[in-house]
Every structure is written in C-alpha cells, then in structure tokens.
Amino acid sequence: MKDLVSIITPCYNSAEFIEETIQSVLNQTYENWEWLITDDLSKDDTVEIIKKYNDPRIKLQVLENNGGAGNARNKSLERAQGRYIAFLDSDDYWYPEYIETMTGYMEEHHVELVYCNYSRCNEQLQPIIKDFLADKVVTFSNLLKTCRLAPVSTMYDTKRVGKFLFPVKSKREDHVMWLNLLKVIPEGMPINKTMAKYRMRENSVSRKKKNIIKDQYLVYKDFMGFSTLKSLYYTANWALNGFLKYSKIFN
C-alpha cells in the first residue's frame, strides 16, 4: 500500500475559492491521503461548504480563536499521521498528478524534500505572469536570499526528517520553517514540471512586498540569530529577488 500523505490547509473566509481547491484534491490520482483543514474562525460560509463533502479523508477542525495561518497550519500538523507532508492553501489548486509525482520522485531518488513549478494566476486561476520554475537545487544558503519554496508546490518526508512547525510570531512563517528544515537536510530537489496553481489575490499579504520588508528582516535577525549587518544584507537580497520573481518585465 502506498504511504499516507497528510495535506495541511489553513483557511479563513475562503468561501469564494474553497470548492475549486477541494475538487483539485478529490481529483488526485494518488488516493491515500488525509486532508487536515483548520479553519481560523471564518466569518463566511467556508465551514458549511467544506462540510458538504462527505469524504472521511477530509478532517476539519474549527478553531475557537483566530490565531493566524501559522497557528492553523500547526494545528493541522499536530493531527497529521502521514509520512509525507504537503501544503495547500484554501485558495490554491493542484493538478491531478501532483501527489503521485511528488511522492514518486522522493521514493525513487531517496530525497527528503521536493518542489515543482507552479502557475501564478489571477483570482480566476488564469496565468498572469510566467510560471515559477523549479530549476535549482535548494539549500539553506541560497534559500536565505530568496524563498524558492512555496507551500502549494513543496512536499517533504517526515520519515526522514520529522515534522517542522511554523513560528506563530512571524508573518513570514513559511520562509522560517523552510530555513529550519534546510538546516538539517543538505538540499531540496526540483521537479521542473508545472503541477500547481498559486492564486495571486489582490488583497494577499504576500503581494504587498513593501509592507513586509521589516518582517523579512526579522526572519534573519530574530529567527536565524544573525547580526544586524548580516540581516540587512540578506533582506536586501530578498527584496531584489522578490522584485525579479514577480515583475512581468523580468519574467
């Protein structure tokens, strides 16, 4: 029997998009998965929509207090029983072969972490800039300068590395988590194939690069323990690479 995959999803006010996300999981060619959805006290119909799907693999938890995406992901991770950990935000989308391809690569090549290409789409899931390409081996060193790993397109093997939780006091919690993981494994491997869609919503925090430079600085200063000068150096690199990553001119 194939190993269990635990899908980690935080959601908050996702009623507009959650059904497309759910359908992308139900369409997976790899069927041995559990989906641990943690709702962060949504005020819309998100929970009611999820409850309509009568699939025992979908495991919903509704929090009593809003604690942010990092906390919600951690609540799902605490319940996860699978060998492989995958992340899917409540407005993103996987192609049907996503889980099968990602787990198959890790099994065949005996690696701890893989990531793939993903489409960068508008709210209607139509591409608006070129796909982000998984074309480099990821290490702790190069991940300091730019975060090539996105939750929608990355998977890791808990049998080889254990579970990694998200810092709840950082607005850049995914970058901190990936850096902590890359401290204990030599590298993450790319799969140069587009198998996911990332929805670039107009009100997304991740789109407001100018507003999160301070948060990114704290990734290095507070969570990595770097000096002020070293933290400023990596923040400048991250800002430049972020511009290149999302600029239509350079992509």
Automatic annotation (TrEMBL):
Any matching Pfam family? Glycos_transf_2
Top-level lineage group:
Bacteria
InterPro entries membership = Glyco_trans_2-like, Nucleotide-diphossugar_trans
Q: Write the record's keywords in alphabetical order, separated by commas.
A: Transferase
GO molecular function ontology, one term from the record: hexosyltransferase activity
Annotated ranges, domain Glycosyltransferase 2-like: 6-126
Gene3D superfamilies (alphabetical): Spore Coat Polysaccharide Biosynthesis Protein SpsA, Chain A
- Quote the protein name from its UniProt record: Glycosyl transferase family 2
